[in-house]
Amino acid sequence: MDLTEGTIEQKTARAKKNIMWFAMLSMFMTFAGLTSAYIVSSERKDWIEDFVFPQYFYVSLGVIIITSVLFFLFKKSIKEGKRSQATTLLLATVASAVLFVVLQFKGFGEIIAQGFYPTGSAATVTTSFIYAIVFVHLLHIFGGIIVLLTVFVKHLKGRYTQENYLGVQLAEMYWHFVDVLWVYLFGFLLFM
User: Fold this and answer.
1) How far apart, in whole angstroms, are the C-alpha atoms of residue 49 and residue 36?
2) Span 142-160, mean pLDDT?
3) How far apart are CA 183 and CA 9, in angstroms?
4) N or C end: fewer C-beta atoms under 10 angstroms in the chain?
5) Cβ(172)–Cβ(155) below 8 Å
6) End-to-end alpha carbon distance in the chain
7) What number does CATH give the domain 8-45+55-191?
8) Statement: residue 1 has pLDDT above 60
């Protein structure tokens, strides 16, 4: 299909999805740069080898996967016209997203309990990278929570129907991206 074909609504939907793909590619490049710098810096003599990965980060991995499943089920409920079920699933998605953030900060607490701080004399290049990578991801999660709340308000106003749910599709693209990004970052930080 030619990109210029279709109704105004179809062209607008394609344009918005393309913008979302571009935004996700930009975010991916940010984290590619951070993880590349991490790999290069790991060759330093002062790199910490015995860092203990926070247990809360393991739990947050499960929670973020659950948020993706919940959001997928929310979209499915919208497509099936099950508004009440969709509301419950979206509330559970938002609650799980907030729980993810809480777990991340508890993970930071575990790192601090090990005696590693993001800045100052107790900071190391290793933990500074971990703080930076996780914190930048958290910024994207905060953006995702704002997106989820926007979708929730529009859902309550009845803006999404079985035929019209572009906002849900865009939010789903973004949310699944930041979820998959955490799975990648978790694995990267754990095994590197």
Assistant:
1) 18
2) 95
3) 34
4) N
5) no
6) 44
7) 1.20.120.80
8) no
